Amino acid sequence: MSRNILAPPLVYMSNNRRYRVNLVHEDFNDQRQASQAAMKGNLHNAKQAYNERDLYGEEHNDEIDDDLSDIECQNSIFKLKIHVASSFYGGLIGFKGATKRRLETETSTEIMIPPRVADNGNKSRETNVIIKGKTRNAVATAKRKIDVLVASLRGRMNATHFFGVALNYDEILENFQVFKELILSAQLPSIDESLFQLDSSLHATLGACVLMDDVERNKAATILQSCREFLANVKTPFKVHVRGLEIMNDDPSAVRVLYAIVDSPDLQLFSDRCLQRFIESGFMTARDAQRERVKLHMTLMNNRFKEVYSPDTSTKAITKTFDAREILKRWGDFDFGSALCKEILLCVIGSSRENKGDFYKISSTLKCE
Fold first, then answer.
1. Confidence bin at 315 (pLDDT 50/70/90)
2. CB atoms closer than 10 angstroms to residue 356
3. Which of 1, 91, 113, 322 is the most exposed, fewest CB within 10 Å of its CB?
4. pLDDT digits (tens, 9 = 90+) for 70-89
5. What pLDDT does 27 receive?
6. What single DSSP character describes residue 324?
7. What pLDDT does 351 receive?
8. What start and end residues bound the annotated signal peptide (predicted)?
């Protein structure tokens, strides 16, 4: 038996680390050069030459995206351009570039992040993150790591958009106005009009997203339109019935959000499927991304409205909660009526408060008639 098999050459990397140099097919020149250098005692050249290749790097990687068609190869260098909203650049770079250097070291790639400067109409300015590497696998792995990091950063941000259905019309609107007047006329402690949702903003939220630039907003709009296929197995327009009160926490004496229950089997089925599609996009808030079902509800009162929008917040202290015990006792089974919902909307959070009397600014609409 060949001595090369019984006593293969070794590469000494340090005092406590040594590796056997496997003799492989001649097509793998780097490994063959390393073994020859090691057999001649030239360990420095062996270390330089020995660079074990990923036999499946360009074709197989169970941990990366299936679609690698955007990776280009020029002069044996693989390059990929990916869009990352500029709001995430700081997180990708890290303190004094530490995060970026770590990603490059772990994946053996070079990552170029464009500076955050005003566009000023300069169409030639690069707006994509560019990844360069010697193998397709290295570039794809770097992309995956960037995706994971961006998802983590997105999870720490507040929602910017929601998708849902408008309920600010007909019977539901009229009964909400009656409901609000009943509560205000009761003159309950810590309850005032600033806690209530605006009449024009009544809606049922299906999910909330974090969309940081026009590219992400356009992608979210495309995702919403792709949910049209889910309408095939449900009856439209959606008939919804709003009745009964619930709170977001377990203590009715310290409530932040009071909402009405929305009942609609067809909308529930559609919403659950639509939610999963948005979760797959990576745009959902951290809380909604963990859900399997949509909790259909119509927000009636929220202490955040008082904290953020009340004109008196600069002069008086704002409590974090309100006491809803008497509201639940007197009007816990209040019936707001029914409505037909003919469209699913992607809306900008907070935009209705900026223009009182109007519904939220709509980014995209999916017709359900």
1. very low
2. 11
3. 1
4. 889 988 899 999 999 999 99
5. 44
6. -
7. 86
8. none
Calpha distance 195→320 (Å, rounded) = 11
> 331-352: per-residue pLDDT in tens?
999 999 999 999 999 999 988 7
Does residue 127 have a pLDDT over 90? no
The per-residue pLDDT for 20 is: 72
Structure tokens at 138: 């290295």
- Which of these, 174, 199, 208, lies nearest to 295 by C-alpha position? 208
Each as own residue / partner, the long-range contacts of residues 68-74 (CB below 8 Å, 24 or more positions apart, any chain) are 68/136, 68/140, 71/136, 71/139, 71/140, 73/136
Tokens of 105: 């070291």
Q: Is the pLDDT of residue 275 over 80?
A: yes
Q: How far is CA 109 from CA 100, 293, 315, 331, in A?
A: 10, 40, 55, 62
**347 near 221, Cβ under 8 Å?**
no
The strands making up 343-348's β-sheet, listed across from edge to edge, are 335-341, 238-247, 257-263, 297-302, 203-209, 161-166, 343-348, 362-367
Q: How far apart, in whole angstroms, are the C-alpha atoms of residue 151 and residue 131?
A: 18
Give me the residues paired with residue 162 across strands: 208, 347
CA 268 to chain centre: 22
Neighbour tally for 102: CB within 10 Å: 12
| Residues 234-239, mean pLDDT to the nearest whole number | 95
Sheet strands side by side (includes 77-82): 72-74, 77-82, 129-133, 109-112
Burial of 188 (0-12, 13-18, 19+ CB in 10 A): middle
Question: For residue 237, is the peptide bond before it cis, meaning its omega torsion is within 30 degrees of 0?
Answer: yes
b/e 61-84 (16+ beta carbons within 10 angstroms → b): beebeeebeebeeeeeebbbeeeb
Confidence grade of residue 237 (pLDDT, cut at 50, 70, 90): very high
> Token digits for 100?
């970026």
Neighbours of 318 (CB within 10 A): 13
Bridge partners of 161, per DSSP, are 209, 348
Rounded to an integer, the average pLDDT of 28-53 is: 52
In the structure encoding, which two tokens stand for residue 312, read together? 């008196």
- Cβ atoms of 190 and 301 within 8 Å: the answer is no
